[in-house]
Amino acid sequence: MTDITNQKPEAVPDPRQTSAKKAPSTSFIYDEGFRNIAFQVIMIAAVIFAGFYLVNNTLYNLETRNIKTGFEFVDQESGFDINQNIIEYSPASTYGTALVVGLINTLIVAVLGIFFATIIGTIVGVSRLSTNWLIAKIASTYVEVVRNIPLLLQLFMWYGVFTTAFPPVREAWNPVGSMYVSNRGFHIPVVEWADPFTMGAIAVVVAIIAWVFLVQRAKKVQAATGKRPASHLIGFGLLIALPVLAWAAGGAPWDVDAPALGRFNIRGGLTITPELVALLFGLVFYTAGFIAEVVRSGILAVSKGQWEAGEALGLSRRRILNLIVLPQALRVIVPPTTNQYLNLTKNSSLAVAIGYPDLVSVANTTMNQTGQAIESIALIMAAYLTVSLSISAFMNWYNKRIALVER
Q: Which pLDDT value is given to residue 21?
């Protein structure tokens, strides 16, 4: 008989070692690189298919409704008037010219709105931190009121104020000279544009470039020698002297187009419509409320020690704010302020609600007359996208310029 007491038990295989020794799968499904490429190919194919389906479906629907596609309509006569135009325009002009006028009107509102909203927002933001109780409370009330009322309602309010507070044309106010104020707007004298003014405008650009060059050169000289040559005084002198000399060399024309009160309307001069004023007031005061909060938060982000260091040097509170705090706060203020600039530009499209002929309003009229809805909306989207990206690119450049450089 076999003695089983001396037999060694068979070793039980460890399942962990078995799985570890298992040969890796060679299936391409488990290849991470393959999966990444496959998912991207599938996504691109889905996007292309969706785009093809939408375009094909749109073209089919347009064809069944006998609607032509393309941008040939921009060369056709528009047949409608625009009461706010900087460039020459009449109902006999083309739809393309009408759209350009609308785009210029949008840019006017955006540029002026950004400029005034920045000034008012900065003042209100600093005022909220004032040690004067009354000023701080007034600034706080302003911010809370304008931020919590819809912009569209504010536009209606300002439009109602400017169209009802001013007298009709026959009873127009004449505060000074040839200037008139009526419910149709502000009518002011304007100098007729001539070639010498174009030369003066070119001279302004040249003077600004020269000023920038002088400032850069002064910085290099200061870094090399410790002494900074005069640059701003010379640059300011060039900015005044060069345009005047260019204008004088062209004959110094000065023909003024003054408004005149007629029986039914005021003719001549430059008319600033109540729609433009109401739109500017609404956009500026609404956006300034948000910019004020951005400025306030940027100032609070600066260490309190900076204020104390300035006071230890004997500087006044105003000089501490201008020379020490605000330059540091700009690095916090600029990025969110860029968003407010973009919001102001896009919110200008609400102008159609009060009758201001901006790009959206003109494009809507064009779309109703021609039936080119897709093309008109595409032009609106392309214009706003271009303007917004331009503002964003400029502000990003400025933000990088003022950023701290670590060594």
A: 53
